[in-house]
């Protein structure tokens, strides 16, 4: 049965953040809030935890996971970022955007697009997510918590616990955090390409 932590959305309790990070490090799957919706997350290198998330969401091997990062410096460790891309990222992070970038050798191959060798990365503007990432000191492998056959993410932590209490190790209640997916922008090539309009303002990338 999963644990259930109620964290303050602006000042998350250090003790609970540390316990949540320890659950991730030990191979657990967690539900946590972001600035766009609740998400499923696990340790970067844990294939069995990743497979558990695939089973929960009923995802095939082609589904791209996102690396949720603390800041720009962490993104640069996992993606190839030139000066123009860096300026774009600096202007739009933290925020509800997912950026598709060329992956570095630090990214496990199972997380890359098999042909393009790209990976999705984002920096969330959410105090609980940031506190968790600060304690982990590395990205979370993550995917939005949308159940099979649903079109929208789950938004109620109590409903999430009831539904997934035997499938995840922890549900973090961070209050309402929205139900709109991130805006996805492909920055792997010279010209930015808007792949999905979501919570983040897509206008700068539609004009590019």
Name the strands of the widest sheet in spatial order: 1-8-2-3-7-4-6-5-9-10
| Unreliable stretches | none
CATH topology: DHBP synthase
Q: How many helices in DSSP terms?
A: 7
Q: Which radius of gyration do the C-alpha atoms yield?
A: 16 Å
End-to-end Cα distance: 48 Å
Topology at a glance:
Elements: E1 3-6, H1 14-25, E2 30-33, E3 38-43, H2 47-57, E4 66-68, H3 72-78, H4 83-92, E5 97-102, E6 118-122, H5 127-136, E7 140-144, H6 157-164, E8 170-173, E9 183-186, E10 193-196, H7 203-206
Parallel strand pairs: 1-8, 2-8, 4-6, 5-9
Antiparallel strand pairs: 2-3, 3-7, 4-7, 5-6, 9-10
Task: Report on the architecture of this protein.
With 208 residues, the protein is α/β, with parallel strands linked by helices. The protein has a single domain, classed as DHBP synthase. Helix content is 30%, strand content 22%. It has seven helices and ten strands. Strands 1-8-2-3-7-4-6-5-9-10 form a ten-stranded mixed beta sheet, with helices on both faces. Strand 9 (183-186) and strand 10 form a beta hairpin. The radius of gyration is 16 Å and the shape is globular.
Pick out its properties.
single chain; 208 residues; alpha/beta; ten-stranded mixed β-sheet; 10 strands; 30% helix
Concise account of the structure shown:
With 208 residues, the chain is of the alpha/beta class.
